Amino acid sequence: MNCCLPLLVLALAGSPGIAGGQVLVNSATNYSDLFSPDGSEVTVDPLDALIGLRFGGSNSGPLNSYLEAEAEGGVSLKILVGVAETGAQVALNDGKLQFNISNNESSILGALGTGLSLDLDWSATATFNKTGSQLLLAPNTTYQLTFDVNGSNGLLNSTLGIFPKFGIEFLDGAGNAIDPVAGYDHDAKVVNVIGLELLDIIGSPPESGRAVVQFQTGNTVASGPAGVRFTGSAVAPATVLSLGTEFASITNLQIAAIPEPSVLGLVGLGAFAAFRRRRAA
User: Fold this and answer.
1) What percentage of the chain carries pLDDT values higher than 70?
2) What are the residues facing 106 on neighbouring strands?
3) Which of 99-113, 124-138, 170-184, 261-275 has the highest mean pLDDT?
4) What pLDDT was estimated at residue 48?
5) DSSP assignment of 135-185, as one string?
6) In the predicted model, what is the mean pLDDT of residues 195-206?
7) What is the pLDDT of residues 56-77, one digit of tens each?
8) Is the dihedral of CA 273, 278, 279, 281 positive or negative?
9) Where do the domains of the chain lie?
10) Strands 117-127, 67-72: parallel, antiparallel or unpaired by DSSP?
């Protein structure tokens, strides 16, 4: 029985939820309704009562109990026979959080052709406040966020000259952004997802993949449910809409607390190594 003790200690040290980190938020399990209901949206409607061309517009509002969205940027052209409109949109569809470009049937970008470009901005903030699954942060703790990014239509490709930005912030209970760990390409506290080296999804383009980002709380952290904010922006000319109207989408979000190496785990590894040496001798 005593000969097997190092194996037992090692097994405990490597069990899920200890060495591998504790999953606190999972959009497939305890937050399975995070990206629903389908069809929920916040869309810019820049329409003006006057005949002619109008740029701008913004809109904001809830997508569900957890997600608040903001969209900014659009253009409308009203003539005697109809209206052509385009606007930024944040939406939930097919279990995804989408940053879209919304066009009516006679798209103004198609009507006006080349030479027109729009400044578009998107934002979606999730607060993890579900009863029984609230995300309450601890001080001096590393949190790892993982999620899938789909930019398969090419609008996240920075070589198109549309200056795309797509980032993520991790927020404490007061809405303050938490510092990412060292080594990430980030602007202030916003980690640039486009700048990350995404883990490839089979068959996906370089703009799609599994993003893994870590954040570190300080000595103190504000109380209350924590959250995540996704942000995006682009300068979209008419010519890029042939690529599609979905700028990016997010799925499969997980947040885990990553523990420091435990004394138990280190003792287990050392005892197991000594046990192997004795057996080999």
Assistant:
1) 72
2) none
3) 124-138
4) 66
5) ----TT-EEEEEEEEE-TTSTT-GGGSS--EEEEEEE-TTSPBPPBPTT--
6) 78
7) 889 999 999 999 999 998 877 7
8) positive
9) 18-261
10) antiparallel
Place of tokens 């103004």: 108
Distance (Å, rounded) from C-alpha 92 to C-alpha 80?
34
| Burial 21-41, CB ≥16 within 10 A → b, else e | bebbbbbeebbeebbbeeebb
**What pLDDT sits at residue 194?**
80
Whole-model pTM?
Answer: 0.81
Given this model, what pLDDT does residue 85 score? Answer: 76
Mark 53-91 as b/e (b = at least 16 C-beta within 10 Å).
Answer: bbeebbbeeebeebbbbbbbbbbbbbeeeeebbbbbbbb
**Residue 104 pLDDT exceeds 60:** yes
Cβ proximity of 21 and 258 under 8 Å: yes
Q: Are the CB atoms for 250 and 63 separated by under 8 Å?
A: no
Radius of gyration of the chain measured on its C-alpha atoms: 23
* Closest C-alpha to 24, from 138, 101, 105: 138
Answer for the pair 55, 100: CB distance below 8 angstroms, yes or no.
no
Whether the Cβ atoms of residue 57 and residue 44 lie closer than 8 Å to each other: yes
What is the 8-class DSSP label of residue 199? B
Query: How far is it, in rounded angstroms, from Cα 144 to Cα 146?
Result: 7
CA angle 173, 179, 183 (to 5 degrees): 150
Q: Are 266 and 113 in contact (CB under 8 A)?
A: no
What's the start-to-end Cα distance of the chain, in Å?
Answer: 20
